[in-house]
Description:
By secondary structure, the chain is α/β, with parallel strands linked by helices. The protein folds into two domains: about 10-250, Spore Coat Polysaccharide Biosynthesis Protein SpsA, Chain A (Alpha-Beta Complex); about 260-335, no CATH class. The protein is built from ten helices and 14 strands. It has helices spanning about 20-30, 50-60, 75-80, 105-115, 205-210, 225-235, 260-275, 280-300, 305-335, 340-345; strands spanning about 10-15, 40-45, 65-70, 90-95, 95-100, 120-125, 130-135, 145, 150-155, 160-165, 165-170, 175, 200-205, 235-250. Strands 1, 2, 3, 4, 5, 6, 10, 13 and 14 form a nine-stranded mixed sheet that branches. Helix 7 runs antiparallel to helix 8 (about 280-300), helix 7 packs parallel to helix 9 (about 305-335) and helix 8 (about 280-300) runs antiparallel to helix 9 (about 305-335). The longest helix is centred in the last third of the chain and has 31 residues, at about 305-335. The radius of gyration is 20 Å and the shape is globular. The model is unreliable at about 355-359 (pLDDT under 50).
Amino acid sequence: MSSDRGPDVTVVTVTYNGAHLVGSCLDGLARQALDGLSMDVVVVDNASTDGTAELVARSHPDVRLIRSTTNRGFAGGNNLVLDHVTSPYVILLNNDAVPEPGFVAALVRDLAADSPRVAALTATVLLADRFRRARDEDPPESVVVGPDDRYVRDDSGSITLVNSTGNQVRRDGYGVDRGWLADATDHRSGPDVFGFCGAAAILRTSALRDVGTFDEHFFLYYEDTDLSWRLRLAGYAVRYCPEAVVRHRHAASTSEGSELFRFHDGRNRLLMLVKDATPALASRALARYVLTTASIAVRRSQPWPHVRTRIRVLGSLVRLLPVMLRKRTAIGRSARASRHEVELLLVPVPTRAAGGYRT
């Protein structure tokens, strides 16, 4: 590929107080076997206070550093680059993910060879931790349950588990990571998937110019599934690139049990459905959330902080509803596929939960 027009691919990593993480990510990018490709690496620092920006500038002077004066979240941080990128392809890479040497070349090669209607490729995201199979004597709180077995983190373990081979959306409106907690040795994912995982994926810049970049109202969580849904409504496809591999320290940047996670995960799922789903799916999900919140508040079946977060979700949703409905109208006007057609891609709700919701 020619570099006359600039780099073949731009790699974007957004970080916030990630000085303990971003170095390994950038070291992994420095080790890439590019096979003649030109690559521009951009780090967006979301107003960190732990010296992240200074660390990047000192240790990786070849990396382009953008210092945001405020924390714009994953969506806004990425958009500082995505809204202006000129390379034909752009790779998203979490600051807590370390790519294997062939990661960039595999993504660019496969997307360049694919149809222009393929807007994105999602990578193989493996959990960085090592695991062994659980034993009867293991404390229950240390056991994670995958689709095929039960595992325990063990630095000397021989098992690698899958974090994601792309985003799926269930028929009840919840997003899930495809392959979550499956044994990577045995897991095989098909080439087509509903959406890309924002932890490690490549996007076609022309497709972003067509449908827009991340919705900054989301801040973080579900922004990748929302963008994938919008790409689907515009007639694009998303595929899986198994040869592009990263190892991800899952939830290293934000804790899944935190109020930050619970608020944005709950609210953004509903925002996504209001914008992108059929009226039937969106209304069912909203009604279920309201009724569940009322039920747990009355029965006191969950800790008060969880109930308070759900009430905050509903308050924020009401405030954002007018703007989301305007976005929904705009998406519908430009859509090349119907909302019903896209929902045919949603997956059944499993009878037995074998993992967690999307993060």
